[in-house]
Specification:
- This protein is mainly beta.
- The strands form nine sheets. The protein has a 22-stranded antiparallel beta barrel. A five-stranded mixed β-sheet has the order 3-8-9-6-7.
- The protein contains eight helices and 41 strands.
- The protein has a single domain, classed as TonB-dependent receptor, beta-barrel domain (Maltoporin, Chain A, Beta Barrel).
- Strand 33 (694-706) and strand 34 form a beta hairpin.
- The protein is globular.
């Protein structure tokens, strides 16, 4: 009934059409506070300023679909991390395996990639202030505190944001230093999770004017997220040796806690009335243990893991932004360095058990005595090091000019050092990868992604209420992958994998070396160039309403397959046709915004686990995505507001995906349904994965006065999303199934006086068992196989169970 009620609300809103500027109206004060005293007349929404088009503009005047969570919304929704706010962004979907292991998608532009380190670049670009932070393997989970706003720009942003903003851009904008005043604050939170433990968050900031022209802003936080998944006792038996192992040493309740801490320092210096310099340093350290998914075959919120699972993710960013005037024109330079180090240890027992049961692989996993190991458990020791440098310079003419422009140049290079060490304790030294004890498989590579572009947008007011904008971005990319991947030569010779799945010493390139890899057997690069385009026509009906049409394109660079026996994959592209309407009504107390879009995704990059669970990337033919995103914000009185958002999406494959011809990049153009099913393909009309056809939310907030100068509030939010798939291929969906629809309810109530506030909040009030992802740890046909006596290795990442907390906030 709850899901049906939410859907009814969403459909009613869809009929009226809207896309509002904020989930929580920005007119309510931001201090952990509530509402001002009532007045006779209902006040309208305050203006929200965004920089989506790299100019400061009023949100309701920008002719594009933008979803914004401002500082007030983030505070009132009790947002600390990515999973807290993404549910309130109807155009954004995602897959996740846990904190900092999340891939995001917009408007259904998703092929269900496995986020492998050697996989395709993301389709959504991520920015922290002016600097890109897009990395493979997961969107950066920036701790959300003292944040001015989060801007979501659905649709191709290829002109101003370039590569990996093919489907859209996610921007996190921090609060900047303010030389005009001193301010500070802190927030302390404690919470408890149903079926889990207790957590806390401690946060604080201070803004210190140094001179009338300079200020520094400092932020720090410490967060502990409680675990709620139990590692329960279990056994597994290896088919070859007959040996049975158990996980008694690792049994533990609530074994998936997450701890993170970090901070931010920003220094702003206004050199004079025209020039300013902003320097920023940020750092975050997150340590997780356990596993963030459960096994339905074992029990709800229960799993059986046989070796330790740990994840240590650290990142730092240093940035410089210089802004100034050259005559009437504004010049902006932004550049910085981003470093990220991830160290994971992952239990890979599932792979060992299932490959032994299906293929008898245990006979090849031998010890020093030359006999098969009784216990050939595998584990992965993985290390990723990212080093990203970016620079952008742009020049903008005055925004009030009839003819106005933005022109600029962009450069980025990212090195990604990859180490994936697959280990079997006691593995024969004669079979290990040379120089790596107990290592059966090693990936030791350097991936480099380079991107350069120039860009420009030109706008002309044909009439006082009719504007045309054109944009173009010529680009060049050079992506390479170099190093070692595979087994040892001796292991290849024994198993016969040298025919293509493994990499042998005989395949090594003479005279080449990389780090401490045994040799170099992969050294490939791919280059490309092209341009993206944008045309926008905007008609202002009056000062409160406008309608626009946009044609825009985006792209994602091609790259090199991790298995060098496969040809490089090509760049893919997205073409977007969008019709939008933005409006304010009744003295700015109602906002209706809506956008309809039709997108063609051509030669999209599709990554999947092939034989021996090795990632392969191929170009699928094409997909079509149609939808509508809308919202309604209504400030009914000074005390009562309602905000809602909705996205309806129809994202499907346009023709059968048959795969490529042999080991080339050439697509097999046509094939029968029988061929698709026999060769792990995808059928025409298949729904793109991680794309719920319906996703929406409704939030209501009521504020009121209390005795003793106290003010109070109550707030309720309902979020709903429909059933969606986790795979594109027919076999994936048959074996994995789909994620059912679900709804969650959050609620809060609090009081405030003199900038001191206390709030009680509840997340997932009715303890919904919604799913955020489901996956297998190896090739789906193997690890999801029905084998008597072995639980299917299908994992489900759940929505966090019912969480109750209390928060104390104060501002000075």
């Amino acid at each position: 009934m709850l899901g049906a009620s939410v859907l009814a609300i969403a459909v009613a809103q869809y009929a009226s059409g809207a896309r509002a500027q904020s989930i929580i109206p920005p007119s309510v004060p931001a201090t952990p506070g509530l509402a001002a005293a009532p007045t006779t007349a209902t006040r309208g929404f305050e203006e929200v300023i965004v920089t989506a088009q790299k100019r400061s503009e009023k949100l309701q005047k920008v002719p594009m679909s933008i979803q914004v969570l401002d500082s007030k919304a983030l505070s009132r929704l009790n947002v600390n991390e990515f999973q807290d706010f993404v549910k309130f962004l109807p155009s954004v979907s995602y897959q996740t395996a846990g904190p900092n292991q999340t891939s995001i998608y917009m408007r259904g532009v998703s092929s269900g990639d496995n986020a492998n380190h050697s996989g395709p670049l993301p389709t959504v670009g991520s920015y922290l202030d002016e600097l890109p932070i897009t990395t493979i393997g997961g969107v950066l989970d920036v701790h959300v505190y003292d944040i001015a706003r989060i801007e979501v720009l659905p649709g191709p942003q290829g002109t101003l944001y370039g590569a990996s903003s093919e489907a859209g851009t996610l921007r996190t904008i921090t609060n900047k230093p303010d030389p005009s005043k001193f301010e500070a604050g802190y927030d302390i939170q404690g919470n408890t999770v149903e079926h889990g433990g207790q957590g806390f968050v401690a946060e604080g900031f201070v803004n210190i004017p140094l001179t009338p022209e300079a200020a520094v802003r400092l932020v720090a936080f410490d967060e502990h997220d409680a675990g709620y998944i139990d590692n329960v006792f279990g056994t597994r038996t290896f088919a070859t040796s007959g040996a049975t192992i158990n996980n008694a040493a690792y049994v533990k309740n609530d074994f998936n806690p997450a701890d993170s801490f970090g901070g931010r320092g920003e220094l702003l210096v206004n050199l004079n009335d025209d020039w300013s310099v902003l320097t920023t340093v940020l750092a975050q350290d997150q340590r997780n243990s356990g596993f963030f998914a459960y096994e339905p075959s074992i029990g709800n919120l229960e799993v059986q893991r046989f070796q330790p699972d740990t994840d240590h993710d650290r990142w730092e960013q240093a940035g410089l932004t210089v802004t100034g005037k050259i005559g009437d024109y504004t010049l902006t330079y932004s550049g910085g360095v981003f470093l990220r180090d991830v160290h994971q240890r992952t239990d890979y027992t599932d792979y060992s058990i299932f490959y032994d049961a299906v293929y008898g692989s245990g006979a090849n996993w031998k010890g020093a005595n030359g006999l098969p190991l009784a216990n050939p458990q595998q584990e992965i020791d993985a290390k990723d090091h990212f080093n990203k440098e970016s620079n952008e310079v742009r020049l903008a003419s005055p925004s009030e000019d009839r003819l106005r422009f933005i022109v600029g140049a962009f450069q980025e290079i990212q090195d990604h050092g990859i180490e994936q060490d697959y280990q079997i304790q006691g593995f024969s030294p004669a079979l290990t990868v040379p120089g790596w004890a107990n290592t059966i498989w090693l990936t030791k590579q350097m991936r480099t992604d380079e991107d350069e572009a120039v860009f420009g947008e030109l706008s002309f007011d044909i009439l006082h209420n009719l504007t045309i904008t054109g944009g173009v971005r010529p680009y060049w990319y050079d992506n390479s992958l170099r190093g070692f991947f595979g087994f040892s030569e001796a292991y290849d010779a024994m198993t016969g994998y040298s025919s293509g799945e493994g990499a042998t010493g005989g395949n090594c390139f003479a005279g080449q070396s990389y780090a401490d890899a045994p040799c170099v057997n992969l050294n490939k690069s791919v280059t490309g160039s092209g341009e993206t385009h944008k045309i926008n026509l905007t008609y202002k009906i009056d000062d409160q309403r406008l309608v626009y049409f946009t044609y825009s394109t985006g792209y994602r660079p091609g790259g090199v397959n991790r298995n060098g026996n496969f040809a490089p994959y090509q760049a893919d592209s997205l073409t977007n046709y969008e019709l939008g309407f933005k409006s304010s009504w009744l003295n700015n107390t109602i906002h209706f915004n809506t956008a309809l879009y039709d997108e063609d995704w051509n030669l999209f990059q599709f990554s999947f686990l092939g034989p021996n669970s090795l990632t392969i990337i191929e170009n699928a033919p094409a997909a079509n995505i149609r939808g509508i995103e809308s919202a309604l914000d209504w400030r009914a009185t000074n005390q009562f507001t309602v905000s809602s958002g909705l996205t309806l999406t129809d994202a499907v494959l346009e023709k059968n995906f048959c795969g490529t011809i042999g080991q080339t990049a050439a697509l097999l153009s046509t094939c029968s349904t029988a061929y698709v099913l026999a060769n792990d393909g995808a059928l025409k009309g298949a729904q793109l994965p991680y794309t719920p056809p319906v996703k929406g939310n409704v939030t209501g907030r009521f504020t009121f006065d209390l005795p003793g100068d106290w003010a109070g509030h109550v707030q309720t939010s309902v979020v709903y999303q429909s059933r969606n798939h986790v795979g594109l291929r027919a076999q994936d969906n048959a074996l994995l199934g789909s994620m059912p629809s679900y709804a969650t309810v959050d609620a809060s109530a609090g009081i405030e006086r003199n900038r001191l506030a206390i709030e009680l909040f509840v997340k997932n009030l009715f303890n919904s068992d919604g799913e955020e992802n489901r996956f297998t740890p190896c090739t789906i046909a193997v690890c999801a196989a029905n084998i008597p006596g072995i639980p299917r290795a299908i994992y489900v990442v759940p929505v966090q169970p019912l969480t109750v907390g209390i928060r104390l906030s104060q501002r000075f």
